Amino acid sequence: MKNKGSERNKYSLWLLAWPIFLEQFLQFLLGTVDTLMVSRISDNAVAVVGFSNQLFNALMTLFATVASGAGIVIAQKIGSHKEEDARTVAIIAFKVTTGIGLFLSILLVAAPRQIASMLQLPEELLSLAEVYISIVGGGMILTAMMSVLGTAIRNTGNTKGPMMTAIGMNIIHIVMNYCFIFGAFGFPEWGLAGVAISTVVSRLLATIVLLFIFLGSFQRKIGPRDFSIFDRKLFKEILNIGWPLGVNSASWVFSQLAIFSFLAVLGSTELTARTYMNTLESFCFLLGFSLALAVQIQIAHLYGAGKTKEAYRAVFKVLAIGLPLVLVNAFIIVLFGRNVLGLFTGDEDILALCGVLLWMNLMLQPGKMINMALGNSLNAVGDTRFTMNISLISMSIIATGCSYLLGVSLGYGIIAIYACMIADEYIRGIWSYFRWRGRKFLRMKEADLAREGAQKDKEQYRCEEGAASPAL
Any coiled-coil ranges, and where (predicted)? Predict the structure, then answer.
């Protein structure tokens, strides 16, 4: 009973959420400092970093397919007390994800300028992009390893390990940025190239720490020989959940990449404004995102354990907490956002544009919160194809298609693009709400449990009959 109680506590929403929140908050805080430092190089450098990060996020979906699917399967297997299967899933995911990351690293080192040019980056930014993409992109294998290791560790219920690692990584990154940008402590002033180098070095150190934690995350420690393990059946389970997640994630990331390309066509002012807004927007949903990620882990564990009623109610508890927090945060940013942006840039055109976008952000964030909570909950029970389908439809037509039509073709600019992003969030949120209320996968789980119970009763009856028959 003690072990069961400690396991329930381990997967409580609060214990899962607060380390994720602290990790995300400090990453945001340090990321803001990072952006502030890069802005001391130039606004063009900020635009290149924002654009490149969208590219990296798009490519990350190639290995997020395996990492995300494995995370959910790990939580489900642990919930159903299949610890060895969870361990095997983690090992398989690590190997596959690392291989994909290596391929992407080679690609980005080989053709950074061509990729940036193909994505319509303005000519004046190409030389900076070539340097930044080749260095940071060359470390994509580290990003892949961090992604799968962090996901696997969190879904065992240990959210503190990735939190501490992320904090250390970002502090090292900021210190190295300071050294390379300002030439402090005798370091050379390498500008944006120095920022890229500090990014790769800090990720390398974080990967080493996460790998150490990963090896001891399961009941039976993972050793070097275990990395030869491969189970086709379990890998198929990962892909069944993971490939729709990958497509879903790719839909969002590629829509954002397309939007950044539209903004690049509109001009560097719009592109830089969006980059600064990305930094401010992150503050709005930090706690909401942390709760949504925590509830995904919790629901996957409850679903694996057959506790479908608790799983169903969990998402509404998260929405009751998350929505007010998101609204309060968004309103605070409306009040103080322009003053904060003044720390980054003195360009009045950028500041005026961001002033309008701050009010639109107040409408955007509740829709995002609904999508994060309900979408993650649907994914946790394996209903990933539904979230994939609504993402493909809404993001391709509303977020991307209408953004181009209204923002670029008809000339309404970034304001119209933001309006399309808002519409996309609410449309997907409404779809996800009604899907969750339908309880399709939860009812399927209940039916499976009922069949398993009936089968066990039959087997027990046969055993009792067999034991009684000699006496007859």
Answer: none
**Angle of the 126-138 helix axis to the 83-110 helix axis, nearest 10:** 150
Asked if residue 331 is part of any domain, the answer here is yes
Phi first, then psi, for residue 218 (nearest 5°) are: -115, 170
The number of domains in the chain is 1
Q: Look at residues 326, 334, 318 and name the one whose alpha carbon lies nearest to residue 285.
A: 326
Calculate the CA 171 to chain-centre distance.
Answer: 21
The 3-state secondary structure of the chain reads CHHHHHHHHHCCHHHHHHHHHHHHHHHHHHHHHHHHHHHCCCHHHHHHHHHHHHHHHHHHHHHHHHHHHHHHHHHHHHHCCCHHHHHHHHHHHHHHHHHHHHHHHHHHHHCHHHHHHHCCCCHHHHHHHHHHHHHHHHCHHHHHHHHHHHHHHHHCCCCHHHHHHHHHHHHHHHHHHHHHHHCHHHCCCCHHHHHHHHHHHHHHHHHHHHHHHHHCCCCCCCCHHHHHCCCHHHHHHHHHHHHHHHHHHHHHHHHHHHHHHHHHHHCHHHHHHHHHHHHHHHHHCHHHHHHHHHHHHHHHHHHHCCCHHHHHHHHHHHHHHHHHHHHHHHHHHHHHHHHHHCCCCCCHHHHHHHHHHHHHHHHHHHHHHHHHHHHHHHHHCCCHHHHHHHHHHHHHHHHHHHHHHHHHHCCCHHHHHHHHHHHHHHHHHHHHHHHHHHCHHHHHHHHHHHHHHHHHHHHHHHHHHHHHHHHC
Structure tokens at 134: 């080749």
Q: How many residues does this entry show for the chain?
A: 472
Look up the domain containing 279 and give its range.
Answer: 2-455
pLDDT by residue (tens digit) across 370-404?
Answer: 999 999 999 999 899 999 999 999 999 999 999 99
Domain presence at residue 360:
yes
Tokens of 242: 């993971």
For tokens 């150490």, what's the residue?
212
Model confidence over 83-117: pLDDT tens digits?
Answer: 899 999 999 999 999 999 999 999 999 988 888 88
pLDDT of the residue at 96: 93
Residue found by looking up tokens 């298609």 in the block:
401
* Number of neighbours of residue 15 by Cβ within 10 angstroms: 15
CA gap 448, 452 in Å, rounded = 6
Distance of CA 466 to the CA centre of its chain: 54
Q: Is residue 52 part of a domain?
A: yes
Give domain status of residue 432, yes or no. yes
Amino acid at 318: V
Segment of 43-52, 221-230, 454-463 carrying the highest mean pLDDT: 221-230
**Interatomic CA distance for residues 137 and 133, integer angstroms:** 5
